[in-house]
Design a protein that fits this description.
Blueprint: E1 26-29, H1 35-43, E2 47-49, E3 59-61, E4 65-68, H2 78-84, E5 88-91, H3 95-102, H4 114-125, E6 129-136, E7 139-149, E8 152-160, H5 165-177, E9 186-190, H6 194-198, E10 202-205, H7 206-217
Parallel strand pairs: 8-9
Antiparallel strand pairs: 1-3, 2-3, 4-9, 4-10, 5-6, 6-7, 7-8
């Protein structure tokens, strides 16, 4: 994939993150899902989610307590280490299929609607959104997708069709972010869950996240996500 293409700027402003409500994860309602708007949001520490009601405007979140995965703290159990050897990891070979699998309406707490799928496909076409995929026997069996801006990788969702496949994709992502700029990189997972905590995800305050984000945005994109060899 070539270097990302900067889209036209958004006509919306997300304001100064320092002024967001310190007691609420939800910091904005409205705007659109144009590529320039999405990139502006991530650069301010926000991400979108639908309300779940058709016709409602988009919700924008900046969690008070943000889930991040320190690259050196990924927990790889002995069984997961064995699983890693059983899958092939690919990057950006099946982006639409990964998003579709993450959006499967049969999954509990599904939130990815057609508008989100279209918006992130556009970001992918411009070089900003990426998938990390776990393959076995020529089949896509797990993966994740997210947005990469400089040293930020903002994870959006993951799925698996075979045991450990999504975890293996996460291991593959972390391996690709561990380069000579790894200290400045930021792997954002939005909110923590017990499952993510078991893999090494920790919570940081919004203020700490924004400090890390500012540093990460100054770092270069990982070579593995911009069509270069490592």
């Amino acid at each position: 994939m070539p270097a990302p293409t900067e889209p036209p700027p958004s006509r919306w402003s997300f304001g100064d993150p320092a002024g967001y409500d310190p007691l609420d994860d939800l910091v904005g309602i409205g705007a659109d899902l144009e590529p320039g708007t999405l990139l502006a949001a991530y650069r301010c520490g926000l991400f979108p989610m639908p309300s779940g009601t058709a016709g409602d405007p988009m919700y924008w979140f900046s969690p008070i307590r943000r889930g991040v995965l320190p690259l050196d703290d990924l927990v790889v159990s002995r069984s997961l280490r064995r699983s890693v050897r059983e899958f092939e990891i690919r990057v950006d070979t099946a982006f639409a299929e990964v998003v579709a699998a993450c959006a499967d309406p049969s999954r509990p707490s599904g939130w990815i609607d057609d508008d989100i799928r279209t918006a992130y496909q556009r970001l992918h076409d411009l070089g900003w959104a990426h998938s990390v995929e776990a393959w076995r026997g020529g089949r896509l069996v797990g993966g994740l997708y997210g947005v990469a801006i400089g040293g930020l990788f903002a994870g959006e969702s993951m799925f698996h069709r075979e045991r450990d496949a999504s975890k293996v994709a996460l291991v593959g992502l972390v391996e690709r972010l561990r380069d000579r700029h790894a200290a400045a990189r930021l792997l954002d997972v939005q909110w923590t869950t017990p499952h993510l905590e078991s893999l090494g995800v920790v919570e940081v305050s919004r203020e700490a996240y924004l400090r890390r984000l500012a540093r990460a945005l100054r770092a270069p994109l990982p070579a593995a996500l911009c069509g270069q060899t490592t």
